[in-house]
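Deviation from plan, reported transparently: iron/sulfur cluster complex.
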Amino acid sequence: MGLIKKVVTWARIKSPWILHFNTGACNACDIEIIAALTPRYDLERFGVQLKGTPRHADVLVCSGPVTRQIEDRLVRIYEQMPEPKFVVAVGTCSCTGGVFNGCYNVRGGISSVIPVSAFIPGCPASPKAIIDGVAKLLASLAEEPKKKG
Amino acid sequence: MLNSLFFILVFPGFLFVSFFGLVAEYVDRKIYARLQNRVGPPWFQTFADFIKLLGKEDIVPCEANARMFGLAPIFALSAVVTVFLYIPIWRYDAAFSFNGDIIMALYLLTIPTLAFFIGGWYSTSLFARLGSVRCVTQLFAYEVPLFMSILSAALLANSWSLRDIANFYSLRPAYCLFNLLGFAVSMVALLGKLEKAPFDIPEAETEIVAGAFTEYSGRLLALLRLAIDIEMVVGAALFVAVFFPFALALGAALGFIVFIIEVLAVVALLSLMRTVVARLRIDQMIDFCWKYLVPLALLQLLINLILKGVLV
Ligand code: SF4
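Because the crystal trials were delayed, the predicted structure below was used instead.
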């Protein structure tokens, strides 16, 4: 049992498939996320693949503050993902609401609606920061079982 | 009895061909990445993907027909694994063989497409339905040239059994040159069967999310992906057995290694082809297949018929 668990955790770390979701960003963060997926940074080295459907994804990469209009849809997308799933908030807006915090149409950061595993601040967060954040999230997965056991 | 079980489950059946399929997917992705000036995935990537998917939650949408949704990947997988048992990879012998197995192999290779259609259709998601209809539409375009070009090679060899065809060509290697046109046609048709660019219309992720696979997750998705990988290997192995069966004359060990290298070379050629082209629209794809591929396949048939009269 222990060995199987270890192998599955290893596989999980080596193959994070991501789904990119714009929850109301000004689009700059999205451009940086796309830039991180281009051949220049080549995220497939780490097994990262961009998927089109939440059913295939392990990591939901969100950008921007949660607007009231997108709130239900964000929750729905999150619920459509199979367990185990993780959420990464990219950009200051998605961490806290950023400059849009307190607007009449804005709920706040991503974590005000769904649980978030990693916050990557920056306005916009640079591709290197995004890759670093995702790598740290994956590294923390490996440590978790050790802490428990 | 035990022998047959070993053939079916271990070598050259399920275990071996699954492993080979995952390796071939890695080769395909690595070459794809290198051609795009990227580093590409590490060697264990496809295994990690597979294990991860096995460890994930299985979701069956409540609208979907659970039985059909769950059975489709299993049908696809078992059909493609069965084909591999009939392909001669070891000396002149396949694990099983009978006169007419080439027809059966071609028909079994059609089953994954139908399984994808059924799985996509019964998941009742709009994207999945669009994707599965495109799957079947595409089937009518590439299947005819594929059958014609492979069967015309069989015609020249005067046999419907894969083993005898492989035998015939490995004894007369020069005859393989006559089938080059047929090989080219069937390579293009195989791209359509595997749903790779330029014929990745059924799963065009920029338009219809992931096509027929949109609602699949976890274990079922792992089986579907494995079925596609194995389909790629089996298609390539079928081509090697029909068009270039040189490895068989080299004895058991060396012949087997050369056979594997030949199959991987066909896979590499497939990934080269999919790198240099962009996706077509479904009507362009059908036009292309019926206007250019089918006449070329007919030409191959004609050449082989004439050759048969002159040479054999
Ligand atoms: S963090 Fe900056 S760049 Fe990103 S969505 Fe907010 S305002 Fe735009």
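Chain B has one domain: 9-311. We consider this an acceptable substitute for the interim report.
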